Amino acid sequence: MKLVGLSFRDFRNLAEVDASPHPQFTVIAGENGQGKTNLLEGIYLPLTLRPLRPARPRDLVRAGTERGRLSLKLDRGGVTEVLDVALDPTGRELRQNGKAPADLGSWFEGATVVAFTPDDLGVVRGGPDRRRRFLDRAVFNRWPIYLQESRDYQRLLRSRNELLRGRAAAEVRESFEIPLARAAARLVARRRALLAEIAPHLASAFDRVARVPGGLEVDYAGPPEADEAGVEDWLRRELDLRLPTDIERGFTSVGPHADDLRFRIGGLDGRRFASQGQARALVLALKIAEIENLRARLGFPPLLLLDDVSSELDPERNRQLLDHLGDLPGQVLLTTTDPGPLLTRLGGRSVLWRVAAGDVRTAE
Ligand SMILES: Nc1ncnc2c1ncn2[C@@H]1O[C@H](COP(=O)(O)OP(=O)(O)O)[C@@H](O)[C@H]1O
Ligand SMILES: [Mg+2]
Predict the structure, then answer these.
(1) Which of 275, 303, 312, 355 is the most exposed place for a label (fewest CB within 10 A)?
(2) Is residue 118 lining ligand 1, measured as CB closer than 6 Å?
């Protein structure tokens, strides 16, 4: 997939943007607060139907206006597709080639995007929710149906929690626990499958980036290793065992919403012991592994959005990132306050956009 054009109206501080990215590198430059991240957010949202950073619908529409629009023109193997998202303060409406999309499968088909933002640097040392979010996005990229599967799970989980708080009759609660455990086992299986796929890429990327050969171990902290039916059975039993405390607290204490990823670097718990440099190396390695795996599995590299990442990495990691990007046959859009070094490096394979006060211009 290539992003060949974008047209935004009244999205965040971007009143009117019409632009065509370069097939390889688009460098988005500007001072802080001008709209660079907004631009990436406007690309990320239609492609994933998830926000790049948490936001309410009304935050997305330009202040003082009632409606906004994000329109992306994609080239999917020679076929042009237009994805439109109309935004208003209450929600959004989707159009694929001018029509309501039949299903989200056709919407997401071939539209694979990986974003890397300064916020991702919290994946290693932040709370478990950060690691789950990283993992969930990676799983969704690999298997878009995961979006529906996790929504199904979240819905069942909310229902069970409500029933716990309402002290509902056992039969009613149990009628939710059966599908809940099944949906939960599905998510766990997807997450483990993704980890198994990226493991070899991750190990070699980390060795390259951190120069600690064999130093990284990753595992999924959740139900014991078993097939999907085995995990489902285990969860059913666990829900039973924990019922008294779950009723007391009013929420479900076991399941993929409470699982975590465990990193060990040189045998030590990454969350507690990783140095700042190791944490950065690991996050960079996770992103590179995800990209390499997608490229190997899907047969094409994902669209890559890098938000101000070079300001967060040290010079050595920056060089490694650029080396990796330089070799990547895919399309990359990246924001920076200092485009000079990037342009020197990327030369004729790039275009420069300048963003100032929500206005985007292609620089010559
Ligand atoms: N709904 C909105 N309407 C108008 N301006 C907005 C809206 N949402 C965000 N902004 C403005 O966008 C600017 C930040 O843009 P951002 O893309 O984060 O900047 P940067 O170039 O530093 O990445 C801020 O000035 C903020 O006030
Ligand atoms: Mg920004």
Answers:
(1) 275
(2) no
**By the 8 A CB rule, do 261 and 135 touch?**
yes
* Confidence class for position 230, pLDDT limits 50, 70, 90: very high
Q: Residue 58: what pLDDT? A: 93
Angle between helices 170-210 and 146-165 (to 10 degrees): 130
Q: Would you put residue 78 in left (φ > 0), alpha (ψ -120 to 50) or beta?
A: left
Q: Tokens for 278?
A: 């190791």
Task: Say if CB 38 and CB 14 are below 8 A apart.
Answer: yes
The pTM is what? 0.88
Question: Can you tell me which atom of ligand 1 is nearest the CA of 30?
Answer: 21
Instruction: Out of 13, 333, 338, give the residue to mutate to test ligand 1, the one with the largest number of ligand atoms within 8 Å of its CB.
Output: 13
CA atoms within 13 A on the CB side of 113: 25
The closest-lying atom of ligand 1 relative to the alpha carbon of residue 335 is 23
Q: What's the rounded Cα separation, in Å, for the pair 209 and 91?
A: 41
Task: State yes or no: pLDDT of 211 exceeds 80.
Answer: no
Segment 99-127 shows an average pLDDT of 88
Task: Provide mean pLDDT across the span 70-84.
Answer: 94
Mean pLDDT of the chain: 91
Q: Rg of the chain's alpha carbons, rounded to an integer?
A: 22
Q: Is the distance from CB of 305 to CB of 114 less than 8 angstroms?
A: yes
Closest-CA residue to 39 (of 316, 353, 284, 320): 353
Here the tokens at position 16 are 């009117």
Q: Is 35 in the pocket of ligand 1 (CB under 6 A)?
A: yes
Task: Write the residue with the smallest CA distance to atom 12 of ligand 1.
Answer: 13
The pLDDT assigned to 212 comes to 65
Where helices occur in 21-127 by DSSP H, the ranges are 36-48, 57-60, 104-108, 122-125
Q: What's the DSSP call for residue 147?
A: H
Beta strands 216-221; 113-116: pairing state:
unpaired
